[in-house]
Amino acid sequence: MTPPPPSNGGAAQPASDDNNNDHLVQSEDPEHPANLIPSLCAKFWTLGWVTGTGGGASIRDDDLVYIAPSGVQKELMKSSDIYVLSLAAQAKSLDRRSRVYLRSPPQYKPSQCTPLFLAAFTKRGAGCCIHTHSHWAVLVTLILEQQNSREFRINNIEQIKGFGNGFQKSGNLGYHDTLVIPVIENTAHEEDLTEFLEEAMDKYPDTYAVLVRRHGVYVWGDNVHKAKTQCESLDYLFQLAVEMKQLGLPWISEVEPTVPRRQD
Amino acid sequence: MTPPPPSNGGAAQPASDDNNNDHLVQSEDPEHPANLIPSLCAKFWTLGWVTGTGGGASIRDDDLVYIAPSGVQKELMKSSDIYVLSLAAQAKSLDRRSRVYLRSPPQYKPSQCTPLFLAAFTKRGAGCCIHTHSHWAVLVTLILEQQNSREFRINNIEQIKGFGNGFQKSGNLGYHDTLVIPVIENTAHEEDLTEFLEEAMDKYPDTYAVLVRRHGVYVWGDNVHKAKTQCESLDYLFQLAVEMKQLGLPWISEVEPTVPRRQD
Amino acid sequence: MTPPPPSNGGAAQPASDDNNNDHLVQSEDPEHPANLIPSLCAKFWTLGWVTGTGGGASIRDDDLVYIAPSGVQKELMKSSDIYVLSLAAQAKSLDRRSRVYLRSPPQYKPSQCTPLFLAAFTKRGAGCCIHTHSHWAVLVTLILEQQNSREFRINNIEQIKGFGNGFQKSGNLGYHDTLVIPVIENTAHEEDLTEFLEEAMDKYPDTYAVLVRRHGVYVWGDNVHKAKTQCESLDYLFQLAVEMKQLGLPWISEVEPTVPRRQD
Amino acid sequence: MTPPPPSNGGAAQPASDDNNNDHLVQSEDPEHPANLIPSLCAKFWTLGWVTGTGGGASIRDDDLVYIAPSGVQKELMKSSDIYVLSLAAQAKSLDRRSRVYLRSPPQYKPSQCTPLFLAAFTKRGAGCCIHTHSHWAVLVTLILEQQNSREFRINNIEQIKGFGNGFQKSGNLGYHDTLVIPVIENTAHEEDLTEFLEEAMDKYPDTYAVLVRRHGVYVWGDNVHKAKTQCESLDYLFQLAVEMKQLGLPWISEVEPTVPRRQD
Fold first, then answer.
1. How far apart are CA A189 and CA A199, in angstroms?
2. What is the pLDDT of residue D94?
3. Which residues participate in substrate binding (chains A, B, C, D) (predicted)?
4. Which residues pair with A187 in a beta bridge?
5. What is the reported pTM?
6. Helices D224-246 & C135-146 angle (0-180, nearest 10)
7. How many whole angstroms separate alpha carbon D56 and alpha carbon D94?
C-alpha cells in the first residue's frame, strides 16, 4: 500500500471532500486496519474497556496510521469513521499539535489520544496501540496511590509470560520475572499526557504499557496480535491484583523455583 | 416526519385498530426510534440494566415520543410493541395522568415510567431518556443512605469527562470537576416519582441524571448518542464507586493538577 | 394441540422408535415449547444459571409437559432432546416414580428434576418452571445457614415488584412489601427434594420460588414470561443481597413511605 | 478414521508442505476435532479461561491427537491452525521431547501444553483435556498457598455431582462427597510440569483435574462432553470458593443428611 502525498499541505483541517482519500479506509479485507479497528473496538466494548466512548485503538501499517475519532461509540464504529495520517509527515511538522490527516471522516473531531498513540509508533516502532478505561486498571492505580507508588509490580503469575522482554529484545518474560508497569499522573487534557508517557518510556525502556492514574492504561505491541495479547494479559493481571488485594494476598512474593527432577 | 393528529381525542385508551397509526412504528431504518429502542434495550439487557422487565428507554423525535410498554421482556421487544405519543398534546391536557397515545400496541399497558421520561423531554429538551435498575446504581444509593446523603459525588476520574456541562451549556465536565448526581427517595408507585424527579431537576439544573433510592437511575441526553454515553459512563462510575468502597478508597479526593512542562 | 394417548401403558421406558411421537417436538414455531426450552437454556447458560449441565427448565402446555433430559449441555440442547409427558397420566399412576413419557429422546435419561417441575405444575398450575444453580442463590443459602435461617427476606427494593402477589391472586408485590422465599435443605438425590418442595409450597402458599440449600433455586410462574421475569428478578435480588452483605448493609430495612404531595 | 503413517520419521520438524496431511484437519462436520477445538476455545475465551493466548484444549480421537498451537489468539483460531499427532508414535519415541507430528500448521510452534495433554490421554485414557488460566483457579491456589496446602477440598455443594467417581469407575460423586483436587507448584517452563502432573495423577488416581499454583488448571474427561462439564463445574466451584472466602464461609462443612420421609 503506497500512501498518497498529504493532500492539505500540513494543515490540521480535514481535506476537502473530493480529495479525502476515502480509498484508504475502503477494503473488503477484515484484516485491513480500517476494518480491524472497528471489530477490535466492538470486542473491547464487551470487555468494559471502552465504555461510554472512552478508550480506543490505533494501528500503524508502515507509514500509515489509522485511528478512531473522538467521542464515537466504540462498539458501533465503522471503517468510514477512521482517520488516516502519515507518520513521517508528523515528524516533519514544526508544530507538534498541528497534524496532517491524509483522510478525515466528515463529521468527527480527531481523538485526543492521537499524540499518545503516535508516541508508541515513533519511540517504540509499535504496530498497534490500545487505550482502555478498564476499571481494573483504574482500581490498581487507586490502590497504588494509597501507597504513594508509581509502579505496578507483580511476579510469579503464569500470565506474566504474555509480555515480551522489551523493546528490540527477543523472547518473553518468565514466570518468576517481575512485571513492572509505570504509573503516570493524569492531566486535565489528554494530549498533555504525551510528554509524561514519553518520559515513562525513556525511564522504563522495556515496558509495553503505561498506567494513567484514575484514568486507564496504554498498551502497545509490535503488531495487532502482540498489542492485544499484552493488553488482555495485563487486564487479567489487574483484575487478579484487585481480587488479591481484597483477599489480603500480596502482589510480590518469594517463590522457590520448582526444578524438574527427570532427565529426559 | 409529520405527526398525524391524535386519533382518540385525549382519552388514555388505545385507538381503535383501524386507526392505530401503526405506520409510526414501521420502518426499515435501524435508526428509526421504533427499531432503535428494541435494539438498545436488548443491549442493555446484556449489561444487567433491564433485568426482569425492569427499566427501559424512550426516544423523542421532534414532537413524537416513542416508549416501550410496561412489563415486557426488554431483550425480546419488537417495534410493534412501541407506544407513540405527541409531546405537545400532553402539555395541553388538563389532567396530567390522562395521556394521548397516537399509537398503542394492542396487548400492553403503558409504562409507569412515561411521566418521568416526559419530564426529561419537556423540562430539559432531551432527545432520549434511559432508566436502568443497574445493581451498581442501587448499591450506590444504599451506601449513600447509610451516610444520610442525597447526593452521589465523585471527582478526579477520567470517565467524568463523559458528561456534558449541563442544560443549554456547551462542552463537557473536566477531569478535576466533581460530578454530582442527586438521589430522590423511591415511591410506592413509579408515576409518583415524577414530582420529585422534577424537583431534583430544578435544584440541580445541570444534572443529566437522577438516582432513585433502592430502585435505579434515570439518565438523559440531547440525543440517543449522548444519553447512552452518559448512562454507560455513569454505570461505570457507580461500579467503580462500589469497588472503591469495598477497598476503603474515598470517592472525593484532593489531587494536585499535573501541568505540562513542554511549550509546543 | 391435542395430546395423543400414552403410547406405552404407564411404563417408564421410552416408547419404541416407530411410536415415539416425535411430532410432539417438531415445529417451525420458535415459541413452541420444544424450541423455547433450548433457546431459553442457551440464554440461561450465558447467565451462569445452568453451568456444567446443572439446572434446567420445563414448560407445560395444557396437559403436555416438555422437559429437558438429564446431563445435557444446556447451551447446546436441541428440540429433539426434549421429553414429553402427559400431566393427567402422572396423576393416575399409582407409583409416583414410574412416569409415563409420550415422547423420549433416544439416548438420554429423564431429568431428576422432573418430579419437582411436576409439583409446580400440579400444585400451582404453573405453565413454566426454571431451576438454576446460580451461585448467587447458593451464596444466599450459605449466608442464611450461618444465621440458622430457612427464609430469605428482603424489602424496600424496586425489583421486588417483579413478583406476583401469589397463587390465584391478581397483581404484584409492592415496593415496601417483604419478599419471602423459603429455603429447604438439599437431599442426596434430587428427586427426594420433591416432598420438601411440596411442604414449602403448602407452608408458603403464595411463594413462586423455593431455594435449595447449597444447590440453587426453583422458580415458577403461570407462563414462560412470568416464570422468566420472576427468575431474573430473583437472581438480581440474590446478587444484590450478597453484595449488600459484603458491604455490611441489611436486607430488611425500615423505610418511611414517600407520599406524593401533588394533587393531579 | 485411519491415521496415516508418520510422514517425517520421528523428527519434531513439520512435514514438508506437500506431505502435511492437511486432510486431517479438513471437515465440514462441526463435531470434527479440528472444528470443535476452535469453537470450544472461542466459547472459553468469553468465559475468561484463555485470555491473552493462555490456556487451550486438546481432543483425542482414537490414536489421533488434535492440539492448538502455541501463542494463538484462542477466540480467533481456525481448523487450519491445528496440530495432529499419533499417540502410539509418541510412546515409541525414545526421546520424550521429540514429538512426531502428522500434520503441522505452517506458521506456528507446538504448544508447551502438549506433554501435559498427552499425560491425560496416555495415563487416563482421556478423550479431551482443557487447560484454563481462569483467575478463579489462580485465586484458589493463592488462598491455599497461604494455608500451606496442596489440596483444594470442598463438600456439600450440589455442583460436585458434575464429577465422575474416578478413573475406570462408573457413576458420579454425590452431594455429600468431598471433591479433592491436588495442587502442583508451577515450573518456569510449562513442559516441566509434566512429571509433577503425572505424579499427582498417581497419588490421586481418581481425580479429573490438577490445579497449578499461580497458573491455572488442567481438567480432562473421557470425551469432550465430560471434560467440558467437569471444567465448567470446577470453575463454578472455584468461583464459589473465592466468594465463600470473601464472606468468611468455610469450604468444608458438616451437613446432616436430609432423608426423605415418604415411602413411595
1. 17
2. 58
3. 113
4. B258
5. 0.93
6. 40
7. 27
Q: Output the pLDDT for position C96.
A: 62
CA atoms within 13 A on the CB side of C224: 20
Enumerate the residues of chain C whose CB falls inside 8 A of the CB of residue D174: 188
Question: D-contacting residues of A 132-161, CB under 8 Å?
Answer: 156-159
From the candidates C28, C31, C158, C256, which is the catalytic residue?
C158
Q: How far apart are CA B173 and CA A5, in angstroms?
A: 38
pLDDT at A94: 58
- Chain A CB contacts of B246 under 8 Å are 246
Tell me the C-alpha distance between C196 and C185, whole Å: 8
The confidence score (pLDDT) of residue D98 equals 73
Place of cell 519511540: A123
List the strands of the sheet with C151-155, edge to edge.
Answer: C101-103, C83-86, C64-67, C56-61, C128-132, C216-221, C209-212, C178-184, C151-155
Q: What's the gap in Å between the CA of B194 and the closest CA on chain A?
A: 27
Which among B99, D207, B243 is positioned nearest to A48, based on CA atoms? B243
- In which residue are the cell numbers 401533588 written? C262
Asked if A175's CB is within 8 angstroms of D186's CB, the reply is yes
Q: pLDDT-based confidence at D230, cuts 50/70/90?
A: very high
Closest CA relative to residue D228, chosen from D137, D154, D76, D126: D126
Model confidence over C237-251: pLDDT tens digits?
999 999 999 999 999
Compute the C-alpha angle C147/C152/C157, nearest 5°.
Answer: 125
C-alpha span between D205 and D182 (Å, rounded): 11
Contacts 24+ apart (CB under 8 A), C171-175: C174/B188, C175/B186, C175/B187, C175/B188, C175/B214, C175/B215
Q: Compute φ and ψ for C219, nearest 5 degrees.
A: -135, 135
The length of chain B, given as a count of residues: 264
The mean of the pLDDT values for chain C is 91
